[in-house]
Design brief:
Shape: globular
Number of domains: 2
Structural class: alpha/beta
Strand content: 15-25%
Distance between the termini: 31 Å
Largest sheet: 5 strands, parallel
Strand order of the largest sheet: 2-1-3-4-5
Amino acid sequence: MTYEELRQALALEPEIVQGTVPHVARYIVGGMGGSALPPEALRFLDLAFPISVHRDYDLPEDAPEDTLYIAISHSGNTAETLSFAKAAHERGLPLAVITSGGALEAFAREHTVPLVLVPRGMQPRSALFYQLGALLRLVGRSDLAADLRKADFRESDVEGEAQRLAAALADTLPHFYASRKNAFLAWVAKIHTNEGAKMPAYANAFSELNHNEMQSFDRMAPPGIASAVRFVLLRDPQEDARVARRMEVFKDVLHDRERTVHELALWGETRATQLARGWFVLERYERLLAQARGVDPDSVPLIEDFKKRL
């Protein structure tokens, strides 16, 4: 996605093409892969918003009634998400759909389910802001949509950061670490590295990783793994001072053990700018790293092969 395409996605004001969306106490999104990212992005913007994600077939075991169930599948053909939508409809639960077409659109139209259509022709992870805009429309958060439209950052700054990150992580095993409130962007970094650059990558959050995962990178770690691992700390200038201290100490103890630690600053005066800017750095990083490795960032042949065999 180019900078101009990102601005278009942020500016789009999606419409609900049919049905009526009820007022509810909470929301549960059924989605997989890149199509499960929008509710997590919403929570990045508002940590207190009552929304959760179901990454599985059917409905969660504790599916309450005063809830809007939102099925998101960019292709419209994701088996787990279709199962989620059908299960909610069969139980008479409030349901809405976000998709670009496929069987999910056909299902929504057949049953007059509230439906928001998003553009086709891209991988779900790259369609995040189209899907997020659709989700904000369904849950009535026009304030957050307005904040995203006003997100402001310079493309040249982003490009430089993405180039430095791609150069630092080429042919490595990246671990992306952030605070709990910013963990969504660490997860985005992992997914973009996995799908776009075709490389293993991992994500975790402070403070939890200090109580378990970090021990695996002490001096007695397997040499082959230790030499390949690179750590990327996603640093927020407005971070909780206690978490910021943990990041500094973490960096020091890893440097003492000759581990390589990089930092990526999450700049932005608003959460919306931090989200849009941080995501775009990672989108550009993915494509630069894929280019350096000679792979197509928009193809997912292993995933497609797996789906065909199911």
